[in-house]
Structures are given as structure tokens and as C-alpha cells.
Specification:
mainly alpha; 19 helices
């Protein structure tokens, strides 16, 4: 088949013929990978570790900002590296390996380094973790868009997040009680990072063994990174995508307070390894009971609705935490934050896939990730400075204002991309 129609049909046939195998591959990779990474992304372990090392909210914010700083430029670089390739799996594997090596570095540094050298090494590994995270988000979402039809993406992400969330929730409690509380192997946090490294590596290995990727029937011409950046304005011609970026930026600004929630809880509760594990259990356990809801809603009604509900849940959880006094208050707030975090991750990345045409997916992902990580880089640093000089309450207020503004943009200025007409619908289905 040499005609464009023939190549498209062959592509669709390959996707459907390998759908079961690729579904299992993505499920296994996501379950194990997200289990490990959630130990890093939970607003408990890394912020508490940085606070233990430095004793300063500014350095807690700086550490979180470094993760995002590393991810500012790398999405565009990653997209430029893969968008002209008919197969993206080899590049995705390389990026995935390099990202996981940073977790290994965090563990080894925690075991063998001390003092200012340990702090510097930890910040360096967080920076490079973020750098490869930005590229990985583009590469693996492109891979998902190639082998999993849109009708099944929500449920796939829901079920893998349920499985991964359940394991991560139990593991976080176990790590808090048995690794951090007992300072396992001389540094309980470092041992937790090693567990994350092992789990994420197993997930990556499963993807490599089982996934079957079709060759893309059409691809972009190879261009340099700067040349692609100059094409960003063309992506912003789409009004709904442009407004989505604004809403995403505001929602990311609303996360400015997240790294400081564990510190805020520590000022009202007695925070030890067991409490950190319990709050982590609430945050990560939220995935177990909310992901199927997010995925089902997204598949049935579109991920714009999921994004709206996610931002609303975030705002309500932060508002509740301001007035929290008892342990169960904070458990409920952290549960809400976890539910919102899982919904945000699913809806923001999946929604990007549905705007515009297929060949622009890598650069749309790159642009969205760059916008998000730029704001997420600035936010924790600003939040740390404000928290150090004015207290944590103003940081909560800034977050709530940003989240409410994001909601207003989503409701009033972003239409569901599946309902934008036949042309947009056909582009999504290809």
C-alpha cells in the first residue's frame, strides 16, 4: 500500500492487531513506573527530606523548583528529537533510563555523602531528574497516542493508576514506618529512593519487552530546536488550545503551596516517619479510588470536564487544609490533593493530544510541558521566600486565587475538543 489512504489503513490495522499486547505493556509500565515516581512526586518524602537536610522552607522550595527548572527546555528538545521519527520507542527508552539513573544517584548520595556536599548532590540529581522528566513526558505520551486509540486512553490510565496508586499508597506507608522511621541502611530517605529506582526500572523493562510500535504513516520534517520554537505561534492560532495553556499555567501557579503542605501540617501535628507515611498513604491512596472515576468521565464526556473537576478539588482541599487542626483533617486534605493530582496528570496530558492534528502532538506536548514547568519552577521559589518572611498562609491564598482564575478560564474560554466539529474529530481519530 503506497497511497496515503493505504498507509493510514495499514497503521490502523497494526494498532488494532496489537492493541491487547500494547495495552498490557502500557499498563505494566505505568503501574510499576508510577508506583516508584509517586514516592518522589508525593508532597511528603522529598520536601520532608530537603527540610531535614537544610531546615529552610526556601531550600525546600528551591529543591522542588529545580525539578521543574530542568524540565523547561527539555520537552522541546525531546519533541524535536522524536517528531521526525517513524518509531519513537528507542529514543523513549534512552530518555527513560537516564531519568531513572537520577533516582539511583539520590539514593547513593544519601548513603555516602554528608553535609553541604550531600545537599549540593541532591539538588543536582533533582535538576537532572527534571530535565529527563520533561523529555520523557513528551516521548511516552506520543508513544501512548500511537498505540492506544482515544476511546481507551482514559480507562487504561485509570486502571494502571488504580493499581499503581494502591501499591504506592501501601508502599509509602511501609516506607515511612519501616525505612524512614528506622533510618534503614543509615538513611531511610535514600533507601526509599532506591526502592523507587528499582520499581521504575522494572516498569521500563516491561515496556521494552512487550510493546509493539507501528511506523507512523506521516511525520514532521526534521528541524532544529530553535526552528521548531519559532513555529510555536502557529500552534497558538487554535483559540481553545491557547486558552487551555492559560488555564494550565494558572493551575500550575495554584500548586505553589503543595511542597509546603507537609511543613504546614508539621506545625499543627507531631510529624515523624509514621505520620509522613500516613499522609503519603492518604495522598497516594486517592489514586486507588479516583482514577477510575477520572478515566471513565474523560472517555465518556471528555477530559475538559475532568480538568475542571480536578482544579476545583485542588482548591477545596487547600481551603480545608487552612482550617485543619486534627490528624483526620489533614488526612482528608491530603486525600483531596492526591485525587486532584491524579486527575490533573491524566486530564492535562490527554487533553493536549486532542487539539489540532496528529503530527503536531509532540510539539503541543512540548509547549504545554514547557509552560507548565516554567511556572512550576518559579512557584516553589517564590513560595519559599514568602513562607520564610510572611508565613505559609499568604502562600495558600495565592494558590487559591490562581486555581479559581484557572477554573474561570476553563469554564468560559475552553471548549471540549471532541465537540469542535468533524474536522477536529477526524484529526483526533487519526
Amino acid at each position: 500500500m503506497t497511497t496515503p489512504e493505504g498507509r493510514e489503513q495499514a497503521y490502523s490495522d497494526y494498532v488494532e492487531g496489537n492493541l491487547r499486547r500494547n495495552y498490557i505493556a502500557h499498563f505494566t509500565h505505568g503501574m510499576l513506573g508510577m508506583t516508584g515516581f509517586r514516592l518522589i512526586f508525593a508532597p511528603t518524602f522529598v520536601p520532608a527530606y530537603l527540610h531535614m537536610l537544610t531546615g529552610s522552607p526556601i531550600f525546600v522550595g528551591l529543591g522542588q523548583a529545580l525539578i521543574q527548572l530542568g524540565a523547561i527546555a527539555s520537552p522541546v528538545m525531546g519533541a524535536a528529537h522524536i517528531e521526525h521519527r517513524r518509531r519513537v520507542m528507542p529514543a523513549a527508552m534512552t530518555i527513560g533510563i537516564l531519568m531513572r539513573l537520577q533516582l539511583l544517584g539520590l539514593a547513593v548520595a544519601g548513603w555516602f555523602l554528608t553535609g553541604s556536599v550531600l545537599v549540593a548532590a541532591t539538588f543536582a540529581f533533582l535538576l537532572f531528574f527534571g530535565f529527563f522528566l520533561g523529555s520523557q513526558r513528551v516521548a511516552f505520551q506520543v508513544l501512548l497516542s500511537k498505540v492506544i486509540p482515544i476511546r481507551m486512553r482514559g480507562r487504561l490510565q485509570a486502571w494502571r493508576n488504580i493499581a499503581g496508586g494502591a501499591i504506592a499508597a501501601a508502599l509509602s506507608w511501609w516506607a515511612g514506618v519501616h525505612l524512614i522511621e528506622t533510618n534503614a541502611l543509615g538513611n531511610g530517605y535514600a533507601t526509599t529512593f532506591m526502592v523507587a529506582f528499582v520499581l521504575t526500572s522494572l516498569g521500563l523493562g516491561a515496556l521494552w519487552l512487550f510493546l509493539r510500535e507501528p511506523e507512523s504513516p506521516t511525520v514532521k520534517l526534521q528541524m532544529g530546536v530553535l526552528a521548531r520554537v519559532r513555529e510555536f505561534p502557529q500552534l497558538l492560532v487554535d483559540r481553545d488550545y491557547r486558552n487551555f495553556l492559560i488555564a494550565q499555567m494558572l493551575a500550575t501557579a495554584g500548586r505553589i503551596v503543595i511542597p509546603f503542605c507537609i511543613i504546614y501540617a508539621g506545625r499543627k501535628l507531631e510529624i515523624d516517619g509514621a505520620t509522613i507515611g500516613l499522609l503519603s498513604l492518604a495522598f497516594l491512596g486517592a489514586d486507588t479510588v479516583t482514577n477510575l472515576l477520572w478515566g471513565t468521565l474523560g472517555d465518556r464526556y471528555g477530559f475538559r470536564l475532568v480538568f475542571i473537576l480536578t482544579v476545583a478539588t485542588w482548591a477545596l482541599s487547600l481551603f480545608g487544609m487552612i482550617f485543619a487542626e486534627e490528624t483526620w483533617h489533614f488526612l482528608l486534605a491530603f486525600f483531596g490533593l492526591g485525587a486532584a493530582a491524579s486527575g490533573y496528570m491524566m486530564s492535562s496530558t490527554t487533553l493536549v493530544l486532542e487539539f489540532g492534528n496528529r503530527d503536531d502532538i509532540p510539539m503541543r506536548l512540548a509547549l504545554s510541558t514547557t509552560v507548565e514547568t516554567t511556572m512550576a519552577t518559579i512557584g516553589p521559589v517564590v513560595g519559599g521566600v514568602i513562607a520564610s518572611f510572611a508565613g505559609l498562609l499568604p502562600v495558600f491564598v495565592i494558590s487559591l486565587v490562581s486555581l479559581i482564575a484557572s477554573l474561570l478560564v476553563l469554564v468560559s474560554a475552553v471548549r471540549e475538543p471532541r465537540h469542535l466539529g468533524a474536522e477536529s474529530h477526524d484529526a483526533v481519530q487519526r
